[in-house]
Specification:
The complex is a heterodimer of chains A (about 300) and B (about 425). With about 300 residues, chain A is an alpha+beta fold. Helix content of chain A is about 70%, strand content about 10%. In chain A, helix 1 (about 10-30) crosses helix 9.
Chain lengths: ~300, ~425
């Protein structure tokens, strides 16, 4: 048995090292909502320059400025061009592509999206409802399974820990890399909530079992024993998930890259929190309770 | 059930899964067993149409939405799109129709197909000499008609159908039977009264479809258009008439157009990622748990086979996030095995014989496995939103991910526990004890 709990302050410190910047970024900059939340248009074109030697962003900007309501143009990794804007409908899209074919060369439309603003507002509501319901179910289940409120509350604190770190990192990425948060990010967040609960439940299950089997051990020692026994499983299981996610991140398509990245962060943070946040919190809870008793 | 019998059941299951997944499985089972690909993978057009219900009484709104959906479905069918998805969605005061057209690249074509507010209307001849000439005479075709609207439109047409004439010389010839709503019947009675032995023209989108001559006033709300129809022409007209009347104006609020090449590229990349990931996980399991890990790998392959089969049988429409959900679930599928193997190691450390340790390991790990997976199942269900609650997500991408994750978790419980346990009992326990 390793005395993990001896260093519990260190674990909390590591968590805070991530949590404080996360909360700072989140409260200062918030998240960058994607098209599905704000409404607007997104056009992706592959352009083959036939009239001029090379496609350039300033040239595209000049064309876009002719009343096409496109305010963002960027080149993607695969050499296609992304155009973003509001009130850019199918009519404008056709005219725009016509202009490009006259001045630069024939464009090929890779994708075109146009989302009305009402749909975006609805999605925000639906997303919030989803998060509240899923988190509510998980809380109820944890509370029901462990009957003792300290397990329930500590498991939820660990879940919050993971969510805030994920949100914080995406807020940071939004500021520096223009990464946007879309419906898939929310899906990743919910998946991680359940993964975090999943991992914490395994550790807590073990603590309860040890409490029953070895009543003579102190609470801290019981937790130490449980962690010693579950850490291998926790790390191994997360590694298999991380293998899958990493290969998806490195080899999979661009469309789901940030979605996979969100899952990756969540998996790592979820693994850490189940062992190094959820369990030490229980010990802390017991210590505070005992201190109160002594007073 | 003895392990041996269980083993044969598993073998049977695997064989049927293999058959279903083989290229000729479809013909063998007389059912289409190809994997359904979502719009993001095969390319196509996704449209969300908002209906304008301001002129419709509130109790009729849902009916109007439903009939608008049917009109659009018919138009899409006429156009010959394979496996279109057309569904309605209502949220508070907005009534929407969601249309997915796989393979349709040209969004204008799609919008023209659906978005046109095709109006059916009945018109009468109001040219100065109307009524004074013999419409049946060949010379009548030479003059220019001047048709004006009568106020009777497709809104009041209940339905059109192909019939066969029952009377007279034309008996047995195909005709088009029209049935009006009560208000339509009233209007039609008035119109026919005014226009006996004159033509009443039927226009679709300002195009003349037909202009039959009224023989007598029709008050029953039922009319028959007879002419020299072939069966095809009659049914064509019927479709046009039925499809023509879009009961409410519609407007596009969302459109997505995905090229087929982007989709194909995503599929290839995801499959590559899946294979590499799977290889890593399998190698990892063998390195970590030796023989046990190898058996878990076999269970993992069975897991993949069964999952693929379930996708084909349900069928699950695969989207890119859906594939990600599947790949993620492979990583999670070995979780129950890892839990069990770690437990087994512990039990073995206490000097128990392997057979006892094996059963104890499985038994004790099951509690954690059950609890831990419940959380994932609940989250997946909230995301799938199986009851179609309007306040929850209805996005196809999110649902696709959650559905594959849910199926993955459920099947992994089976392969991770039942399959691995049977394999271990059979191949790792000393023969004499089984």
């Amino acid at each position: 048995m390793i005395n993990f709990m001896k260093y519990k302050r260190l674990y909390f410190l590591i968590s805070l090292l991530f949590l404080i910047p996360s909360l700072y970024f989140l409260s200062r900059f918030g998240l960058k909502p994607a098209l599905d939340f704000t409404g607007g248009s997104l056009l992706e074109l592959a352009i083959k320059p036939t009239h001029i030697p090379q496609v350039s962003i300033p040239l595209l900007q000049d064309i876009a400025r002719q009343g096409f309501n496109l305010d963002q143009i960027q080149e993607t990794d695969s050499g296609t061009y992304l155009f973003k804007g509001k009130d850019f409908d199918q009519d404008l899209n056709q005219k725009f592509q016509h202009e490009i074919s006259t001045f630069i060369g024939e464009p090929t439309e890779i994708s075109f999206e146009n989302i009305g603003p009402t749909l975006g507002r609805e999605l925000i509501k639906k997303t919030l409802a989803g998060i509240i319901i899923a988190a509510g179910f998980i809380m109820l289940y944890v509370a029901y399974r462990f009957k003792d409120k300290k397990y329930g509350i500590c498991a939820i604190l660990a879940m919050l820990h993971d969510s805030f770190i994920m949100l914080g990192i995406f807020s940071f990425l939004g500021v520096y890399l223009n990464v946007e948060v879309d419906a898939l990010f929310v899906t990743a967040l919910l998946t991680i909530l359940s993964f975090s609960a999943h991992d914490t439940i395994v550790v807590y299950d073990r603590i309860r079992e040890s409490l029953r089997l070895n009543p003579q051990l102190s609470f801290t020692d019981t937790v130490n024993k449980a962690i010693t026994e579950t850490l291998g499983r926790s790390v191994n299981n997360s590694l298999t998930i991380i293998f899958m996610l990493l290969s998806l991140y490195l080899l999979g398509g661009v469309t789901i890259k940030w979605f996979i990245f969100a899952l990756l962060i969540g998996t790592i943070s979820g693994t850490y929190s189940s062992t190094f946040t959820a369990a030490p919190l229980l010990v802390l809870w017991e210590e505070i309770k005992n201190r109160k008793k002594k007073l | 059930m003895s392990p041996l019998r269980r083993f044969f059941l598993i073998v049977l299951l695997v064989i049927s899964a293999v058959i279903i997944n083989l290229p000729y499985g479809s013909t063998l089972l007389k059912r289409d067993l190809s994997l359904k690909k979502g719009l993001d993978l095969q390319g196509g057009t996704h449209l969300v149409l908002e209906t304008d219900m301001k002129d419709i009484d509130s109790q009729d709104k849902l009916d109007a939405l439903e009939s608008a959906k049917q009109v659009i479905s018919r138009r899409v069918d006429l156009y010959g799109v394979t496996e279109p998805v057309i569904q309605t969605a209502t949220l508070k005061d907005s009534y929407r129709i969601i249309v997915e057209l796989p393979g349709i690249q040209n969004i204008n074509q799609a919008v023209d197909l659906i978005g046109q507010t095709a109006q059916l209307d009945f018109r009468q001849d109001t040219s100065p000499d109307a009524g004074e000439i013999n419409y049946a005479s060949p010379s009548a075709f030479m003059r220019v008609f001047s048709f004006t609207s009568t106020g009777l439109t497709g809104k009041e047409l209940k339905k059109a159908a192909v019939n066969f004439d029952q009377s007279g010389q034309t008996s047995g010839q195909p005709v088009v039977a029209l049935e009006f709503t009560p208000t339509g019947a009233q209007k039609f009675a008035d119109i026919t009264q005014r226009n006996v032995s004159r033509p009443v023209a039927i226009f679709l989108d300002d195009q003349l479809v037909t202009a039959p001559i009224v023989n007598e006033p029709i008050t029953t709300g039922q009319a028959v258009i007879s002419g020299n129809f072939t069966s095809e022409a009659a049914s064509q007209l019927t479709i046009q008439l039925n499809a023509g009347a879009l009961p409410v104006p519609i407007k596009i609020v969302e459109q997505k157009n995905i090229s087929a090449t982007l989709g194909a590229d995503s599929v290839i990349k995801s499959v590559k990622a899946g294979i590499v990931g799977l290889g890593l996980v399998m190698l990892f399991m063998i390195l970590l748990y030796g023989k046990n890990g190898f058996l878990a790998d076999i269970a993992l392959i069975i897991y993949g086979l069964i999952t693929l089969t379930v996708y084909k049988l349900i069928p699950v429409t695969l989207t890119l996030p859906g594939i990600a959900g599947f790949i993620l679930s492979v990583g999670m599928a070995v979780d129950s095995n890892i839990l069990i193997f770690e437990r087994l190691k512990e039990e073995l450390r206490t000097d128990r014989p392997f057979s006892v340790a094996l059963e104890l390991g499985f038994g004790r790990a099951w509690d954690s496995i059950k609890d831990a997976n419940t959380a994932t199942i609940m989250t997946a269900l909230v995301l799938i939103n199986p009851l179609n609650w309007n306040f929850l997500n209805t996005s196809g991408m999110v649902r696709g991910f959650a559905l594959t994750l849910l199926i993955g978790v459920l099947i992994s419980l089976f392969t991770g526990i039942v399959v691995t346990r049977t394999l271990m009992r059979l191949f790792l326990l000393p023969r004499s004890k089984t």
